[in-house]
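Narrative of accomplishments. A recurring question from our advisory board has been how the design workflow behaves on a single, concrete structure rather than in aggregate. To address it, we present the structure tokens for one chain from the evaluation set, followed by the sequence designed for it. No filtering or post-editing was applied between the two.
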């Protein structure tokens, strides 16, 4: 196993990070590999033959898929017209630089749009753009109360709760099923997204139930995401049925009649969303 495969295995095994953080890990793994591998043709071959594995594991993340499509096009061009090794490195590096401030730009626009002062905000799962938004709030001296779900089965809500608490926010950490009980005290729900389509967006399992509770309690549901996550191609929510994580993450039970099923992502109807905030604009679902 070469150095890139070791780094790639670490990226593919990450079950806690959001899509943008996973993409950052992936681009940095590629850049690190290209710095070490001086054989241009070898690096092209390695990346080309790793692409199917990466796509199979991560293409449900819209931002990762966006990068992989551009990377594949670049590799095909360079295969047909072999050139300088630096061209591939520069492509990945330029892509990384182009989008490195996307979360910050989303957070800046969200802070101008949302009145969070004195509010209680419920969060689900773990999203780098959500954490960036709370860093922006802390820098401006606004400290709403936070309710964070644990986000089973990997409990990545713990990572987000810790990062937000370290910014100075008070965080109530609750089990996922307590969200309904807490909703009467909530002013808004803020979440990230892995994909955004015209009729639905994709996020961590449990988001749909929270969205339904937002409708029941008349609580705004706010989605923060950079514009790469908005797809112009009609999505297929049934494709998420195949994204099943290991059953042992839920329950490693030895019983022939018990079948733990670990669905990790789910579609959430756009009609349940109040607004979507990207780095470019505030979007109402009917405008998608």
């Amino acid at each position: 196993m070469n150095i890139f495969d070791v780094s790639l295995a670490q990226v593919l095994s990450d079950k806690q990070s959001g899509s943008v953080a996973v993409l950052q890990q992936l681009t940095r793994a590629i850049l690190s590999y290209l710095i070490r591998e001086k054989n241009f043709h070898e690096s092209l071959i390695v990346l080309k033959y790793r692409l199917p594995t990466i796509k199979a594991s991560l293409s449900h993340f819209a931002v990762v898929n966006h990068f992989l499509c551009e990377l594949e096009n670049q590799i095909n061009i360079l295969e047909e017209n072999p050139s300088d090794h630096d061209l591939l490195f520069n492509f990945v590096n330029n892509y990384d630089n182009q989008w490195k401030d996307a979360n910050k730009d989303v957070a800046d626009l969200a802070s101008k749009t949302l009145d969070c002062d004195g509010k209680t905000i419920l969060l689900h799962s773990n999203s780098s753009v959500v954490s960036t938004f709370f860093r922006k709030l802390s820098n401006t001296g606004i400290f709403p109360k936070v309710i964070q779900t644990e986000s089973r089965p990997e409990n990545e809500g713990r990572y987000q709760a810790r990062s937000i608490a370290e910014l100075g926010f008070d965080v109530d950490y609750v089990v996922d099923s307590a969200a309904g009980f807490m909703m009467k005290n909530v002013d808004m729900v803020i979440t990230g997204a892995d994909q955004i389509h015209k009729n639905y967006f994709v996020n961590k399992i449990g988001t749909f139930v929270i969205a339904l509770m937002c409708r029941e309690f008349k609580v705004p549901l706010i989605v923060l995401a950079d514009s790469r996550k908005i797809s112009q191609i009609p999505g297929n929510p049934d494709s998420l049925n195949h994204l099943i994580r290991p059953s042992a993450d839920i329950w490693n039970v030895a019983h022939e009649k018990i079948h733990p099923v670990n669905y990790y992502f789910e579609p959430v109807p756009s009609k349940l969303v109040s607004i979507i905030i990207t780095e470019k604009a505030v979007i109402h679902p009917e405008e998608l």
